Amino acid sequence: MLKPYIENINKIKSEISSIGEEISHANKISLSALKENDLSMLKDVNLSLKQLSTKSNDIDKLIVKTLALYSPEAKDLREMVSFLKITNELIRAAAYSKTFAKNFRKSFSEDLNSEAILEYAIPLLKSSNLALQTAIEMVLEDDEKIIEQKFNKVLVEDSKTDDLYAMVEKNILKLITKKIELSKDYFEVLSSLRKLEKISGRAASIANLLVFAEVGGDLENV
């Protein structure tokens, strides 16, 4: 393969990974805020969707340029198509991360049962971000066996987030029946936690795209 093509691919992977790491870092700040029960820390989540979108667009332009110049063969073409879709998945994940930090801080009040909420919210955020981190690690990985291992790990964490969200939803609905006057606040908290489940869903989509890039398959099911 031509050296300029390889250099472009490496740059694309590096830039995609950089966006993913920025989102993951924001989620880690949110996780620390929940663990320490200090929601003022959520103000430090300063993801700029505008800047990330600009970076994403720059990556997409480089992908299109590389496709036009080098006409990659089957596997390489799958990889490039996957990268185009992955940048979009990352922007969606970033939006969910930012919305969670903003809305959870606004809706959470001293009147709510923080212990019952955080019991599942903390592991939910942890699993969600682990799914994202693992999916991002797959971007820079070339070993097919390791890609498969990480893919399975992403699916496990995504399944965990589904279960954890169901648990916290059940807890919050019970709390609402006891204090119906706080139902609006509880529903807003639940809505913000739903964004964490969606982040892991985006991670699963990224992982599926990377497996498609490596081994092929039906892109419509990715």
Automatic annotation (TrEMBL):
<dbReference type="InterPro" id="IPR028366">
    <property type="entry name" value="PhoU"/>
</dbReference>
<dbReference type="InterPro" id="IPR026022">
    <property type="entry name" value="PhoU_dom"/>
</dbReference>
<comment type="similarity">
    <text>Belongs to the PhoU family.</text>
</comment>
<dbReference type="GO" id="GO:0030643">
    <property type="term" value="P:intracellular phosphate ion homeostasis"/>
</dbReference>
<feature type="domain" description="PhoU">
    <location>
        <begin position="17"/>
        <end position="102"/>
    </location>
</feature>
<dbReference type="Pfam" id="PF01895">
    <property type="entry name" value="PhoU"/>
</dbReference>
<dbReference type="GO" id="GO:0045936">
    <property type="term" value="P:negative regulation of phosphate metabolic process"/>
</dbReference>
<feature type="domain" description="PhoU">
    <location>
        <begin position="130"/>
        <end position="209"/>
    </location>
</feature>
<dbReference type="InterPro" id="IPR038078">
    <property type="entry name" value="PhoU-like_sf"/>
</dbReference>
<protein>
    <submittedName>
        <fullName>PhoU family transcriptional regulator</fullName>
    </submittedName>
</protein>
